[in-house]
Design goal:
It contains eight helices and two strands; from the N terminus they run αααββααααα. With 239 residues, it is mainly α.
């Protein structure tokens, strides 16, 4: 493998890992609605769905690119899928932020419907996960095809990133859900990603670096703040 191909592979793995973290966040928020005994099963189904979609779209990558042909005015099937997925992602993120802010002391507030009845059906949760997996997969594969025509490189990047995501999905998801401030920040990232996906559907390309670098900076600041608060609490207990 030449150096250019190796560089492309590493770049694609990084891209898939970033999109994988988005997947982990969405899956973690959705499975938090389920009883603890069902959460791991739903999480594995969601991650498996993400892998299957990505591999299917890699196998049909050139067909996927043909979805860019206009079918409604200037908009293609790909554009309509991205618009629908972006809007759905915006809706889910805003709804979750509302529940976190308005019901801070209510465990699993986002999982409680009218009358206080918990939503514990796995089917609708898995269906939402699969829908969002498809949106993330289409976006990532089309981006990958734009970087290289070598489908083996894309497939290796997908499989390598999936192994990392599978190993860390539960601890990352649980860590985010344990810290409300971090959860709100992560949900805000999802709003940004949802807007970006909608803009892509409207033919307004946004360089990924302009999105993920500020998000990474904000995450780093929040983690430093959490570390600072933890150190102050520990010093107070030892005083």
């Amino acid at each position: 493998m030449d150096l250019n191909l190796l560089g492309t592979l590493l770049l694609l793995i990084g891209l898939e890992l970033v999109l994988g973290v988005d997947n982990i966040l969405v899956i973690s928020i959705l499975v938090s609605r389920l009883p603890p005994a069902m959460q791991n099963t739903a999480r594995l189904i969601g991650l498996a769905g993400a892998l299957v979609f990505r591999l299917l779209f890699v196998a049909g990558a050139y067909w996927l690119v043909t979805l860019s042909r206009p079918v409604v005015g200037i908009y293609s099937v790909k554009d309509l899928i991205l618009l629908a997925g972006g809007i759905f992602l915006l809706y889910k993120a805003v709804r979750e932020i509302h529940h976190v802010v308005e019901h801070p002391d209510e465990p699993g507030a986002a999982s409680v419907g009218p009358g206080g009845a918990a939503r514990v059906a796995m089917g609708p949760i898995v269906g939402q996960i699969i829908l969002l997996d498809a949106v993330f997969s289409i976006d990532s594969v089309i981006t990958a095809v734009g970087m290289t025509q070598n489908l083996w490189v894309i497939a290796i990047a997908v499989l390598a990133s999936f192994g990392v995501i599978l190993a860390y999905a539960k601890p990352i998801g649980d860590f985010i859900l344990r810290h409300p401030a971090l959860k709100i920040l992560a949900l805000s990232f999802l709003i940004t990603i949802g807007i970006t996906i909608c803009m892509e559907g409207l033919h307004q390309h946004v360089p990924k670096a302009y999105i993920y670098l500020p998000m990474g900076f904000a995450l780093g600041v929040e983690l430093l703040q959490m570390r600072y608060s933890a150190n102050r609490r520990r010093r107070g207990e030892n005083a």
